[in-house]
Amino acid sequence: MTAESEPAVRLRRAARALLLDGGDLVLLRRTVPGRAVYWTTPGGKIEPEDAGPEAALRRELDEELGATAGPVRQVFACSEQLPELHRLNVFYVCRLITMDLSRRHGPEFDDPSKGLFDVDRVPCTPAGLASVDLIPETLAAYLQMHAEDLPGLVPGAAPVSADAPPAPRGRPAPPR
Fold it and tell me: Is the keyword Hydrolase assigned to this protein (predicted)?
C-alpha cells in the first residue's frame, strides 16, 4: 500500500477535566449501546473558535455538566491511536465551583444512539478509582500513582489526611 492510498489520519485535540468535588472526582458514567459501561472525564474537542485549551475545557464543563470550575492546572497528557483518528487528550485538574445538571446541553444529549452520560462522584483515591472502568487506560494508570496528589495542585480545600473521618458522599445524579 502506498502513502497515497492510505487513509488520512485526523488529529483531534481534547481538553479534559479532573474535576474535584471535595475528596471525589466527578466522572461521566457512559452507557453506550453495544459496549460495556465505562467512566470517563468531562471534556472534549478543542474547537477552532475556542480561545485555547482552557476555554475549551470551560465550555465543555458548561455543556456536559452545567458546571463552572476554579483555576485549572495541566497535569497529564496522553494520546490514543484509532484507525482514522489520533486523539490527543490534555488533562487539567480543577475544583468544582457550581453544577446544575438541568443546564446540560449539546447534541450528545439529544441523540439516543450516543447513550447515557450519568454523573458519578468517585473517591479520588487509588482504591476508589480502581472500582470503575476508567478510560483511557493511560489516565487510569496515571491516577493510580497520582490521585492523592491532585487536591494539593489547585487552590481550595486542603487535602484530607489519612486519619480524617470520611467526607460525606456527594449527591447522586438526578433521575433523567
Answer: yes
